[in-house]
């Protein structure tokens, strides 16, 4: 078994790592941008694929990876994990349909609520306590799911049904369809950029470059929010115009450890 994931702010990475550690301690997981991802899938009969929901859809980068490697999937048993800020309908189903076309067998799907990665929207901002509660609930859900799989071979089928397909389609995807049909050219970099290069070093798409002491976007943004959530100057935005709080999974966990010790 192998695990491959896309993760911008660390939520999906945490979820797939916890899931795989519970299921099989020997299984590691690889970021989708890693050179070894294709080879690892090639040599595995079972694959866990994980990604964040974007506009009730699969991030274009993940769909692109699956399609570019269409010959990889024939006969593979695939379990899908998606994370979401609030609602995804059929976040897993969207990719399951593509994978089935290429001959994969979908063994199940799990959709997990995590903190919202979109940190340049005031509307989506949550308190630290709320995000920590969401993570605790996500962890408990992963533990229950792993136990059900180990004890009864019972794989969840979240997001894979026809009603879930309708919920995802009409609940959100139709209205935002244009946003997920390609890479984004809409990343904005403000004058506060000091050209430190952190964004360029971290971008899973290699979409950022430092030119004349400033970051520039090459127009192939995966909308993962990794650069936005780690820029030391909060100089990068995508959907909004101002960063309200840089959201990162590790931050919520560290804060929770600090508060435990200070109690
Ligand atoms: C561009 C974008 C679109 C998103 N769309 C949705 C959505 O439609 N529904 C939802 O529940 N969460 C949505 N989210 C939230 C993420 O799916 C969620 O925060 C996810 O856990 C981030 O995972 P990551 O840290 O591994 O990247 C969106 C996030 C981004 C960046």
What topology does this entry show?
Elements: E1 2-5, H1 11-23, E2 29-31, H2 37-42, E3 46-52, H3 60-68, E4 77-84, H4 91-101, E5 105-113, H5 128-152, H6 162-176, E6 188-189, H7 198-202, E7 208-211, E8 214-217, H8 226-230, E9 236-237, H9 249-262
Parallel strand pairs: 1-2, 1-3, 3-4, 4-5
Antiparallel strand pairs: 6-9, 7-8
Helix pairs in contact: 1-5, 5-9
> Uncertain segments of ≥5 residues (pLDDT<50)?
none
Biggest sheet: strands, sense, closure?
5 strands, parallel
Measured distance between first and last alpha carbons:
41 Å
Question: Which ligands does the model contain, each kind named once?
Answer: flavin mononucleotide
Shape: globular
Q: How many E-type strands?
A: 9
Helix and strand pattern: EHEHEHEHEHHEHEEHEH
Overall pLDDT metric:
94
Name the CATH architecture of the domain at 2-179. 3-Layer(aba) Sandwich
Helix content: 25-40%
CATH topology of the domain at 2-179: Rossmann fold
Can you tell me the CATH superfamily of the domain at 2-179? Flavodoxin domain
Number of H/I helices: 9
Description:
The protein is of the alpha/beta class and 263 residues long. The protein has a domain at 2-179: Rossmann fold, CATH 3.40.50. Helices cover 39% and strands 16% of the residues. The protein has helices spanning 11-23, 37-42, 60-68, 91-101, 128-152, 162-176, 198-202, 226-230, 249-262; strands at residues 2-5, 29-31, 46-52, 77-84, 105-113, 188-189, 208-211, 214-217, 236-237. The strands form three sheets. A five-stranded parallel sheet has the order 2-1-3-4-5, sandwiched between helices. The chain starts with a strand and ends with a helix. The relative contact order is 0.16. It binds flavin mononucleotide (FMN).
């Amino acid at each position: 078994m192998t695990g491959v994931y896309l993760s911008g702010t660390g939520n999906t990475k945490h979820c797939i790592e916890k899931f795989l550690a519970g299921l099989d301690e020997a299984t590691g997981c690889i970021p989708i941008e890693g050179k070894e991802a294709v080879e690892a899938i090639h040599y595995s009969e079972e694959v866990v694929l994980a990604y964040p929901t974007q506009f009730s859809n699969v991030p274009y980068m993940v769909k692109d990876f699956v399609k570019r490697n269409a010959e990889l999937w024939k006969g593979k048993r695939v379990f899908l994990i998606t994370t979401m800020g609030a609602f995804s309908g059929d976040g897993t189903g969207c990719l399951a349909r593509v994978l089935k076309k290429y001959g994969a067998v979908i063994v199940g799907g799990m959709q997990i609520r995590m903190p919202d990665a979109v940190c340049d929207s005031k509307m989506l901002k949550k308190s630290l306590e709320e995000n920590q509660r969401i993570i605790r609930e996500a962890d408990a859900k992963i533990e229950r799911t792993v136990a059900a799989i180990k004890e009864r071979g019972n794989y969840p089928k979240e997001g894979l049904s026809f009603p879930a397909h309708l919920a995802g389609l009409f609940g959100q995807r139709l209205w935002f369809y244009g946003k997920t049909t390609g890479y984004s050219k809409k990343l904005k970099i403000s004058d506060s950029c000091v050209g430190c290069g952190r964004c360029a070093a971290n971008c899973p798409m290699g979409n950022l470059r430092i030119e004349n002491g400033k970051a520039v976007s090459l127009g192939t943004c995966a909308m993962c929010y990794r650069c936005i959530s780690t820029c030391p100057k909060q100089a990068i935005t995508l959907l909004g115009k101002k960063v309200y709080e840089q959201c990162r999974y590790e931050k919520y966990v560290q804060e929770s450890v600090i508060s435990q010790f200070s109690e």
